[in-house]
Structures are given as C-alpha cells and as structure tokens.
Design brief:
By secondary structure, the protein is an alpha/beta fold. Helices cover about 55% and strands about 10% of the residues. The protein starts with 6 loop residues before the first strand and ends with a strand.
Length: about 475
C-alpha cells in the first residue's frame, strides 16, 4: 500500500472513532485499524463522506499506510490492552515514529512505556483527552506529554482538532516530558469529581433546606450559569434537573438510583496526592462520597440513626439561602482548583516536568468537562505570577473568598443543623481555615509522636531536631 495517511487510529470504539472523524474533518488523511475489521468498515460506510480515510485490515497494512514519521493513535482500554497494542505495533515502526496513547492511562504506566519505547528509538506520547464523545468529535481539550520532538511532529495536528477558547486559542499544549500529560489529565478528572460533588451538595441543600423542587432548582442553576459560575457542569445540571422522566412523569433525578459510579481517575488523584504529600481533601471527599453512595446495605442498616430533619424555609428565607449557597459553591470551587493546581505543581517538581500552570488553565477553557468562565482568571493569575503558591494567594480570588466566607459558614452550619451531609463544602472550608490559621494543632500531634515513638520534633525558638525523655525527669535531648 502506498504511504498516504497523516495519522493512524487504532481502536475504533466511540472515542477512537470520533477522534478519527475529527482528524478527517480537519483535512487530514486518516488510516484506520481495528481488531474487528467490521468496525473499521462500518466507520467508513457511515462517515466516509466526512474526509479521507484509509481502511486497513492488518497491522502491517495499517503501518504501511502512514507517512513518516508515522503517527499512530491508540484508543483502547487502559492497562494490559494498551501494552498489548504497543507490543503489536512497535516492532513494525522505525526510529522517530510516534505512538500516542489517548486513553485514561495511569501516568506511571505512561512513564514506563515512554522509557521503554525511547530505548527503541520511538516516541511515546501519553495524551489526556477530555470532552467525552462530543468533544472527541467536535474538539476536545488535549493534554499531551512526551518529548519536545514528538510535539513538533504532532502538535500542529492536535491544536487543529482541539476545542478553541473564546479568544480563539487552541485547547492543546505540550504539558511536559513522559507522564506529564496523563498526570494533568488525572488531576483534571479529580477536580471534575470535586466539582460534581459540590454541585450535588448545592442541589441537595436547595431541595432539603430551601424546599425547592427540581424544576425550581433548575431555574436557579440557569441563573447561576449567567454569572461567575458559568460552566459546562452547571449548564448540564440545569438540563438534568429540568428533565421529566417519560415513563413516570416524575422528575428525572428522582428515578435515578442514588449510587454514583467511578472509573478510577479520581481515586488515582487522591492516591497520588498522598504519595506527594499534597492535601486534596475536596477531591478525596468527592471520591469517598461516591464510594459511600454505593454501600447500599450499610446505608439501609443505618437509615434509622438519630438526627435532625430540615424544616423547609419560607419563600423569602429560601431565596436568601439560595444566594448563600451560590457563595458557598463558588468559594468551595475555588478551593478545589487550588488543591488541584497545587498537586500539579508538586508533581511537576517531583518528576522535573516544568509544567506551565497558566497554560494548563488555558487549555481547560474549552472542550473539557470542567470548562468554566473563571478559568480565564486562573490563566491570568498564573500568567501574572508563574510562581503563585496558591490560587488563594491571588488578590482577586482572595477578595472573593473573603467576601463569601460568612455565607459559606452559614451554609455549612445550616447543613449541620439540618442533618444534610456536605462533605465537599465542609472540607473546602476546613482547608481554607487551616491555610489562614496562625498555628495548627499539628504541634500537639508531633509531640504525641515524640512521646510514643521518639520521632523527635522541631522547636520554634531554635534550629535542630529534639526528643524529650518522656519519663520521670522529662529531660530534653538534641536529636542531632
């Protein structure tokens, strides 16, 4: 077969097929290969008029259809399936060719694969792709890692098929070496977990404390979406809450089983944050909230536990409370992004990636699930000060959270008084208060560790590590 395709896509399920169509729609010739040839034929039969496709039936035929340097996008299940595809195609490639993994791989797997393929003279690009099926087809946010050389070959193509922010900037950039792209995508998904949990808590408060029905709450969310909370997730939340179930005539949200599932990227975010020593309490609470929702037997056994029941508010009080919930939601959202960007910064430092946080915020402005209007301001904050230690150190975000804190505290208090669980709001507020505290009770924790384990402690009045002889004389010794 004559060499003709600009890029090849293997793994033609919905995401892979839509990305292939996206490339073709943007003027690229796309080679196609799938383990099941019928899926390849079906894609060409149904969408062949969208651009230039080259259907192939064997790995050898697929590779032969690609221009040098060959660019091969793998869209299969993360884990062993990805390794199997790499083992299948790597021997057929030549020095300088590029394998791109567009799945939700763990970044440590990506680091291993990049290292192994680099030894074979091949480039491996672990690439985060966010936006779901629609984004894959019409323009996702794209987060590629890998070498600078691979970005030179692949970057213009990814920028062309990516979503575009309102200012026209492509939502794709080179994140950094080896696993940086998949790491940033992982944290993106962790922030997504937190964002969704906070929105769910806001809904629960408006329903159980304010006494609003789903259709009324949908109107509230539509209003919020015209202001600083303008985002994809707020937009679709309003649509979900306004939807009526055709079979029962009931609000759609009331016929959905209240057990949220997860694919694992949020859990990876929390596990990695623990390894890095970075507090991502909001993301962790979102992951745990989904886990708790799935323990149906435990919840059923605990249904009759004592506790208060909220009393619906008057119309006037409910409207005022809704305004307070908006403040709490916004402030908690700022904290979630603060924690996520802190984790990216820590990962960048640990793995020597030199990730540009402003660029990350910039490419999240379009295409991805957490796209939101205030990402423009996050981008501007990091552009102004690339070494910004925290979003809460930015003057404008600090002013907004300060203005929101009274309402934020009132909402958390109302939830506690009414017996409504708000782990996301509570964790975000606790993080905020911990940051601003002059001293934390960690001093006592460290003293306890020295008492039972001789773990030593540092003092406020002089340098060094110390240990107290916790016994009769309680003398202090310099531990060196």
């Amino acid at each position: 077969m004559s060499t003709q395709a600009d890029i090849g896509v293997t793994g033609l399920a919905v995401m892979g097929g839509n990305l292939a169509r996206n490339f073709a729609r943007n003027g690229y010739t796309v080679a196609l290969y799938n383990r099941t040839a019928a899926r390849t034929r079906a894609l060409v039969d149904e969408h062949g008029d969208e651009g230039a496709f080259v259907a192939t039936e064997t790995p050898e035929e697929f590779v032969a259809a690609l221009k040098r340097p060959r660019r091969l996008l793998v869209m299969v299940k993360a884990g062993e399936a990805t390794d199997a595809v790499i083992r299948q195609f790597a021997p057929l490639l030549e020095e300088g060719d590029v394998i791109i993994d567009g799945g939700n791989a763990h970044f440590e797997d990506t680091r291993r694969r990049e290292r192994e393929l680099r030894e074979q003279g091949l480039h491996f690009v672990g690439t985060g792709v966010s936006g779901g099926e629609e984004g894959a087809l019409n323009g996702p946010s794209i987060m590629p890692g890998g070498s600078k050389e691979s970005w030179q070959s692949l970057g213009p193509m990814l920028e062309k098929i990516s979503a575009k922010a309102e200012d026209g900037a492509p939502c794709a950039t080179h994140i950094g070496p080896d696993g940086a792209g998949h790491f940033v995508k992982m944290v993106h998904n962790g922030i997504e977990y937190a964002d969704m949990q906070l929105i769910a808590e806001a809904y629960d408060l408006l329903r159980r404390v304010a006494g609003y029905e789903p259709a009324r709450i949908a109107e509230v969310f539509r209003t919020w979406n015209t202001g600083r909370l303008d985002s994809y997730l707020i937009e679709i939340t309003a649509q979900v809450l306004a939807h009526t179930d055709a079979a029962t005539g009931r609000p759609f949200v009331d016929v959905v089983l209240d057990q949220a599932e997860q694919k694992g990227t949020g859990r990876w975010t929390v596990q990695t944050a623990l390894d890095l020593g970075v507090p991502v309490s909001g993301i962790a609470e979102a992951v745990f909230a989904r886990s708790l929702s799935g323990h149906a037997d435990l919840r059923e056994a605990s249904r009759e536990l004592a506790g208060p029941r909220p009393t619906p508010l008057s119309e006037e009080a409910a409207a005022a409370f809704a305004d307070q919930v908006e403040q709490a939601l916004y402030a908690s959202k700022v904290v979630s992004y603060t924690q996520g960007f802190h984790q990216i910064a820590a990962g960048s430092q640990t793995y020597d990636w030199d990730v540009d946080l402003g660029r990350v915020a910039s490419i999240w402005r379009g295409g991805c699930i957490i796209r939101a209007a205030f990402l423009d301001r996050i981008t501007a904050a990091y552009d102004k000060d690339p070494a910004l230690p925290s979003l809460l150190s930015d003057e404008r975000f600090a002013e907004e959270t300060a203005a929101a804190q009274d309402d934020w505290r009132a909402v958390v208090s109302a939830a506690v008084q009414g017996g409504v669980p708000v782990p996301g709001f509570s964790a975000a507020l606790a993080y905020y208060d911990a940051l601003r505290a002059e001293r934390l009770p960690a001093a006592l924790t460290q003293a306890q560790r020295d008492f039972f384990g001789a773990h030593t402690y540092r003092r406020t009045d002089r340098d060094g590590a110390f240990h107290t002889q916790w016994g009769g004389d309680r003398s202090e010794a310099d531990a060196g």
